[in-house]
Amino acid sequence: MTPAPHVPVLLAEVLAALAVRAGGVYVDGTFGAGGYTRAILEAADCTVVAIDRDPEAQVRAEPLRQAFPGRFTLLSGRFGDMATLLPAHGFTAPVDGVALDIGVSSMQIDEAERGFSFAKDGPLDMRMEKAGRSAADVVNEADEAELADIIHFYGEERYARRVARAIVEARAEKPFERTLELAEVVRRVVRKGKDGIDPATRTFQGLRIAVNDELGELERGLAGAEAILAPGGRLAVVTFHSLEDRVAKRFIRERSGRTGGVSRHVPVDVAASGPAPTFHDVSRKAIAPGPEECRANPRARSAKLRVAERTDAPAPSADGAKA
Fold it and tell me: pLDDT class for 112, splitting at 50, 70, 90?
């Protein structure tokens, strides 16, 4: 069976959000298959610096290097480190836009050997950069309480304790090594719901997020974008589940001064005494794909795009003070 081709989600909306222009410098923090990068490079005579922690991304990037010589660079690393990664490779000027497409890529899901899929048998891995603690390590070594927390908080699984208990009982007989071994254990204790979603979905999501520290990486990436964007530069963040969207929504609201904590009855001089907003919330509400895109690309159904524009206020330093 041939894997489905990778289709960038909300592509037209992301391009519009970035307001791509000739001479601009843009960061694609989650290169993946290069869909956003290619579209940005084709939209204007600009430069794109992409980032990906997956070692296989460098191979996927070669056609773009040939098609856009001198205008495209792919850096190996985590997008959460963009504020230090870019200067270390000679990109010292503020950038005009940052695009982030959060979560696992379709190529990683489709490749059974990467261990992300509960529908295909493969090693229980899930590491985006093929280094560090794997999903098998977590499943076989974490105690029952830690497993339950991971599955509950990151997987949003209501039966997390039941699943964690079943995992601990099963691994006492034999350590988990394969994806389908874990999926079958989960399916034995969690019934298929009316929504038709596979019972293993949420457990696999929780483990994947924990293994790759995806929410922490998103928080670091948002702060990194804040540090490197020029005044007027745009931030476009595409998320695929509520945990990711909540992080992006909270960050943009806080940085744009929309925390809701200041009453309209408070004197202006008091209300204005707080830190100046570093972003303007452009989208205000999340942008969702239309029905046509959802029909053409089922993976787009849960996607949300949030857009913010950088102001000229200094970014907070690591200790929270303005730089």
Answer: low
Q: Are domains 11-106+214-310 and 128-212 of this chain identical in fold?
A: no
To the nearest whole number, what is the mean pLDDT of the chain?
A: 88
Asked whether residue 35 is marked as a ligand-binding residue, the answer is yes
Asked if residue 213 belongs to a known ligand binding site, the reply is no
Count of other CB atoms within 10 angstroms of residue 196? 6
The pLDDT confidence band at residue 267, using thresholds 50, 70 and 90, is very low
Q: What CATH class is the domain 11-106+214-310?
A: alpha beta
Q: Is 108 annotated as a binding residue?
A: yes
> DSSP string covering 217-240, please?
HHHHHHHHHHHHEEEEEEEEEEES
Domain boundaries, the chain: 11-106+214-310, 128-212
Type of residue found at 79: F
User: Does the annotation flag 251 for ligand binding?
Assistant: no
Q: Are 273 and 250 in contact (CB under 8 A)?
A: no
Reduced to 3 states (helix: H, G, I; strand: E, B; else coil), residue 309 is: strand
- Annotated binding residue at 232? no
Token pair listed for 31: 């290169």
Q: In CATH, which of 3.40.120.10, 1.10.3720.10, 3.90.870.10, 1.10.150.170 is domain 128-212?
A: 1.10.150.170
